[in-house]
Amino acid sequence: MKVAFLGPKATFTDLAVREMFPSAQSIPYMTIPDCLDAVMEGEVDISVVPLENALEGSVNITLDYLIHEMKLPIIGEITAPIKQHLLVHPQYKDSWEQVEVIFSHSHAIAQCHKFLHSQLKGIPCESMTSTAAAAKYLIEHPEVRAAAIANELAAKEYGLAIAKGNIHDFDFNHTRFIVLSKIYKEIPAQSLGSVGEKTTVMVTLPSDRSGALHQVLSAFAWRNLNLSKIESRPMKTGLGNYFFIIDVEMKLDEVLIPGAIAELEALGCSVVILGSYPYFNIEKTCP
């Protein structure tokens, strides 16, 4: 099995793939859209991309591409704990406080705001496509007096020094990754057991209907369907136009969820099922 992941090697997505699919051939791609294109074009069987971080919320580019650009069903979800470290070229290990710029993914930079504000105040931060891409840039450009925010595997992979460890603002730092495929297939998780089942739907409300969102939630509530998440995203058709992403803590059945969808459609809502899938937790902390 071939698995695309947000690369280069040693990103947090790479760590999740290694834990979840230890026998698969994993192939790094530089951006999330590249990962999704690889599945659509048949270069790989599945793709694993980040969806949400506990500290910084949803990865909007993932959601937007799934909704607006390509229709790829979600066939699984992986949640993994995250640790962020400040990495530097070995020659700057003892003078890391004099770095002139900090590179990382925008979410990683935001996750370490308190540390950056107190320890490296005024040092500019520049976003890159991933934490590992930032680490790779450092070792390839030793003339640049810079630091990267990334994980321990990135330090080992690219020969960098950990100047300060665990610089994220809060201990409970987790990321959800989704597994995508053109067709549904069982996930051959060799080392993990499924935690539960989930169904994700996209709901677009009818325009100018008072209380529409309340009616949507009621359709799930009276059927005792537990919702673990509801999030609004712009439809990109004008200000004030939104759709909702809803996670139902239940596998798609033949009665309850189809009944709720039928009720929503009767109210004038548009409903699309984005996937019904197992979700997994990686207990081992991604270093």
Descriptive overview:
It comes from Cytobacillus spartinae. InterPro entries: ACT-like_dom_sf, ACT_dom, Chor_mutase/pphenate_deHydtase, Preph_deHydtase, Preph_deHydtase_CS. It is an enzyme of class 4 (lyase). Pathway: Amino-acid biosynthesis; L-phenylalanine biosynthesis; phenylpyruvate from prephenate: step 1/1. This is Prephenate dehydratase. By secondary structure, the chain is α/β, with parallel strands linked by helices. The protein has 3 domains: 2-82 and 173-180, D-Maltodextrin-Binding Protein, domain 2, CATH 3.40.190.10; 85-164, Periplasmic binding protein-like II (D-Maltodextrin-Binding Protein, domain 2), CATH 3.40.190; 196-277, Alpha-Beta Plaits, CATH 3.30.70.260. The chain has 9 helices and 15 strands. It has helices at residues 12-20, 32-40, 60-69, 106-111, 113-119, 131-140, 152-158, 212-221, 256-266, and strands at 2-6, 25-29, 46-53, 57-58, 74-81, 85-88, 101-104, 125-127, 146-150, 161-164, 174-180, 196-204, 227-234, 242-248, 270-281. The strands form 2 sheets. Strands 1, 2, 3, 4, 5, 11, 12, 13, 14 and 15 form a 10-stranded mixed β-sheet that branches. Strands 8-7-9-6-10 form a 5-stranded mixed β-sheet. α8 runs antiparallel to α9 (256-266). The longest helix is centred in the C-terminal third of the chain and has 11 residues, at 256-266. It is elongated. The two termini are 25 Å apart. The relative contact order is 0.19. The mean pLDDT is 90.
